[in-house]
Every structure is written in structure tokens, then in C-alpha cells.
Amino acid sequence: MKRYLLLILLAMGIAGADARETYPLNDDWSFYFRSENSADDARYVTLPHTWNLDALAGNSEYLRTTGNYTRRLYVPAEWSSKRLFLRFGGVQTVADVFVNGRHIGEHRGGFTAFTFEITDRVKFGAENTLLVVVSNTFQNDVLPTSTEQNIYGGIYRDVELIVTDRVAVSPTVWGTDGLFVEQLSVDADAVRCRAAIHLSAPKECPGTVTLVVRDPEGYVVVEKSHRNGRTIDNPVTIPFEVEAPQLWSPSSPKLYTVTARVVCDSLSDEVTVRTGFRKLAVSNRGLVINGDTVRLHGVALYHDRARAANAFSAADYDEDLQFIRDVGANAVHSMSGPHDAYLYDRLDEAGIVAWIDLPLTRSPYLGDIFYFPTDRFRLNGREQAREIIAQNFNHPSVVMWGIFSLVWQRGDDVTPYVRELNTLVKQGDPSRPTVALSNQDGELNTITDLIVLKQNVGWTRGTTDDVGYWCRTLHASWGNLLAAACYGAPGYPSQQDDLIERPTARAHWLPERGQSRFHEEYAKVIVPDTLFWGEWINAMFDFGTARGANDRYACGLVTLDRRQCKDIYYLYRSLWNRRDTTLYLAERRWRVRPEANQRIKLYASVDDAVLLVNGDSVALVKYAPGQFFADCTLLPGDNRIEARCGTRRDSLTLKVGTALKSRDFGALRKTKDRRSKD
């Protein structure tokens, strides 16, 4: 009740302000499943929220269903001359919004923001009721229709109430702030741009628009005014030029702020966005930023983590970025759709580039249909594409739009639709290249500007010795493709064994050493291959999948709960991180070895490391960049293994003997459970 009264007083206190105000509406929501028929047993929840969080921990069934979120909202009488908007950062997957029982609008797509105006639906000086009906059920006209990621459902990002004057920079344009900064030409002498400002104002009060651009130090470098003579649905456009610009690049991520202010008599509104000026191009070596070719070391980012599922907080993103920066990745791939805008704000600041997918994707399951050749399906894909481009348009870190991911040429031909989406994206944003992730041959690989080819030879088929042959054949036969490579394999740190078995389609036994062996061979061949414009690791973190073994896909460099960095994390840290020294003894969780003669593996970013076994130095052999090994004979009992380089140390203890295998332990535990019940 105190919080409720505080909201009333706060609202009344600022009622006379003439600029926009934004209020978070994350607290005091009630939630109940639609199948419960009434709100009698509703639970109080705080946003962000998903109803499948317990399923991620294995404590409940994974549900694709419909839920209702309700909340009271007091609107002061003093706001009767204002305009009110509800902005949702993300709802998975379909949302219907009601105010006082009246339908405001529907949004179909789980990865993008949307805003509805509610001015003519609220009661001023009274309490109002908000209802959001949310569904994550399977629908064949909302992308993605096929995915191995969990679609967790819920209002999983922030909700805000935006209050403006009657004259406003429109917050309803594809879920954005209504201000877009388009770069027309970029060079060291000057940047020529055009600001597009979408206004929403009464006909009798169109207003004057002022544009102010500030450099990274906060100094005003541009200030221009323009009388609004817009027509309906057309933005006000103001061309401007910045001389001697500080360009944004991965090594120097300089950011400008751009403010658009509209004034009409006593009414006004303004919005501010951050952006960076940089020139993007594509050459036969890949991505070019400001004339410099950038080799990308990328990781896939899924929408998942333990204790949060898809409902990430700012602290969650900050922690994930610490891992990404530490491993040395300079690029991220937002799988199936964009993350929250907070992530791209941080990437802008860090100089890490991003590739954002459209949700046209397919899972590896044969029973799935990923493309429905219906008007509603195609329309939804186009709408989501427009939202993704608009909402991330001003982020300099976003350098590529992903058109599709792992689609198959089976059933109805998807190629014309892929071409349609590629054309739509290029028209909406000609400054950025398009890209796709493919595990197929054929025409699909030739549509986008760039292509990333996913390979799993040595895991699902063949051996890792085939990786080199695949690369040579690709470069010889398809040298016209501007290709990068993507690869990954699952592995559990908890699963250690003396033998590494070949996985099967339903394997629950996926030892970490098998994953490491896979990545060692791929990294040996692909990372030094200069004919690729980058390598993309699938993925940075494990992610939940109710459709797979162990309810998660353990392909990450780091576990789902972020508590364990797997061995391969340090393999790529040794290859990518040039700021910090990496010295890591691999296979450290395989503590009991079956024989005295052993090969000790070391991942290191330096070539002068020293290895000691029980105090005696042994010769290290460089197997590949970042990979070293030494063959040695262990003694009975404990053996101390130590790696040194300057003042850095890493050590572990190994024994020779017969280890109790993880699978045997599982069987033994089940036997004990049965005995305890008896």
C-alpha cells in the first residue's frame, strides 16, 4: 500500500513538468494461468518474469501455454492534458494488452519491444486495470516455428509508462524512441548524416524541431532547427555534418549523443540516443570497419541462463560480458533474435561487434516444420525484421543482420522468401551487410552478403581429420563465397571417463574431454585460416532445451549457471585474449588416470611455458597455436603437475588407478536409493 501511495504522490508531484517522464512498471503484478479460470489463486510477481523458471531447474514441467498478468495503475487527474504510452521491452511470444477491459493491441514476436498509446483508454484521477494476456504456445504464423531453444514465455523484460505532452517524438514507431541517425558517408574528414524524427502532434500545433549532436566529450558539434512541415507517416529529416569525427571502432569505441527536441507554444518533448560513426564494408577478406579488415572471433549468445531463464537483469548481462571480454571474443551472435537493448548499449561501449538474427531458424528435429508458406507467416517475418532493424539501428556495435539460421531445403521452397527478407533488410538499412548461418549446400548460401558455414564433422559424422579436407575443398570450389566457419559440440564437466565414446543421437553421455578433443582439432585448422573472415563458436554458454538430452544443450564454453569454465574456454582464451596471459592445465577434472604413461595438455598464450611433473621439468611440444603437450610417466600415489611462465602458475594433482566412472556412479546411486526404500 505504501508503494502504491508513493506512486500516486510521485505522479502528482511531476504533473506540471513539460518534458516526457518514464516510470517503471515492474512491480505489483499478479499472475495466473489462463487454465486456472480466475485470479483467485494469482501469484504476485515482479518483472521480468517467466513461468518456466522452475522448469529450467527441473522442478516443474516445461510449459507452452497462456498466462495472464494484471496490475492496477492510478492515473492522476493532473495528467488529463498528457499522453500516456505503455512500452514493453519483450513479451514471449504473443501479447494482447487490455486497459480497463478494452483491447489496446496485439504484438506477435517474442524478441522485440513494442509500445501502445493508452491515452484514450485510461480514466484520469482514478484507478485503472492493466491486463496482458501472454502466450508461448506453438503458432505456425509467428516466427520462430522451429527451434531447440526453450521458449520460456512471460513478460520477461521491463515494462514502462511513458508520459508526454500532446506534442511528442513518437514512441510507437516499431517500438523505438522515434529518432534514427542514418550515416550517408563516413571518412576521416567528415561524417554526413541524416536524422529522421518521427513526430506525433495535433495538426494545429506541428512545432519546431531542434537537433543537437554532442561529441564523446560532451561538446556540442551540431545544432540545427527545422520547422515541421511533415506529412502523415513521414518523419522530419534534418541533414547534418560532423567535421573531424571521432570514429567508432572495436579498438576505439567513441560514442556521440543525438538529441531531438520538438517545441510548440508551451508544449515540448525530447529524446536522446547514443550512436557511433563508422564505415562498414565487405571485402574478399570479410568485414571492413573504417578501412581496416577485422578478423572476428565470435561466440553465439542464446537467451538463457540458470536462475533467470530468459528474464535477464542488467547484472546478468554485465556478468556475461565479463566472460566474453575475458575469453577474448570480439563479436557476439544474438541467436534467433535480439537481446535487450541494455546488452547492445554495453557492446557499443566495449567495442564488441554484434550480429543479430531474424527468427527464421530450424531445429535439427526431423518432425519440425520451420517455414509455412502462408501470408500470415510471411507478414510476421517482415514485421519482426522491421522491428529488429529499427530498434537496433542506432547501435554502432551492430554490424550485421542475420537473415536465417540453419534452414533446410525441404518441403516448400524457402529460397524466394529468404530473398524477399534479404531485400527488405537491405532496403531498410543499406549500410550494414546481411549474413546467414548455414549447414546446407546450394543457392541459399549465395543470397546474403556474408555466409557462415556450420560444420560438425568429427562429431555427428566423420572424424576431426576431415576438417582440413573440408576447408581445402571449400576454398577451392567455393572461393567466391565470403565465408566464415561455425562449429561446436556439447560436453559436461561432470562427466569424466577413461574412454571418449562417439556420441549417438540420444546420447546422455557427453564427456568434457570429447568436447575438448573436437575443439582442439577445429581450432588448429580454422583459427589460423586467413581465407575465413572469422570463426564463430557455438556457444558461449550452455542453454536449456526441453527437447534435448539432460534438458539442456551443453555446447557452451561456460556452463548454464556460469559457475564452471570448461577446458575449451581456456583454449580460446589462449588464442584470442591478447591482453592477459593464459596458462591452463587441461583435463584437470580427469583426476584419476588408468595408466602411468600419460599425456599432459597445456593451453597457453605464450611459447616459453615450463612444465614440471613432481618437481622435474619435462619437454613441452607445441601441437598447434595455444596447444601444448608433454608425455610423461606418473608415479604411484599423488603426482603434482605444475606449469610456469614468469610469475604465473597453474597446478593440479593426478593419481594413477581405476576411477569410478560417472555412469557407474549413477547406477550405484540408483541401487542405494532402491535399498533405502526397501
Which architecture of the largest domain would the CATH scheme give at its second level?
A: Alpha-Beta Barrel
Please tally the helical runs, counting DSSP H or I stretches of 4 or more residues: 10
Give the biggest sheet.
8 strands, parallel, barrel
- Lateral arrangement of strands in the main beta sheet: 27-28-29-30-31-32-33-34
Low-confidence parts: 1-17, 662-678
- Please estimate the helix content: 10-25%
Count of spatially separate domains: 4
Q: Based on helices, strands and strand pairing, what is the structural class? A: alpha+beta
| Count of distinct strands | 45
Distance between the termini: 53 Å
Descriptive report:
This protein is α+β, with helices and mostly antiparallel strands and 678 residues long. The protein has 4 domains: 2-166, Jelly Rolls (Sandwich); 179-278, Immunoglobulins (Immunoglobulin-like, Sandwich); 281-579, Glycosidases (TIM Barrel); 581-678, Immunoglobulins (Immunoglobulin-like), CATH 2.60.40.10. It is built from 10 helices and 45 strands. Helix 3 runs parallel beside helix 4 (341-350). The longest helix is centred in the middle third of the chain and has 18 residues, at 375-392. The relative contact order is 0.08.
Short description:
The protein is α+β, with helices and mostly antiparallel strands. The protein contains ten helices and 45 strands. The protein has an eight-stranded parallel beta barrel, surrounded by four helices. The chain has a six-stranded antiparallel β-sheet with strand order 3-2-4-10-7-8. A five-stranded mixed β-sheet has the order 38-45-44-40-41, with no helix packed on it.
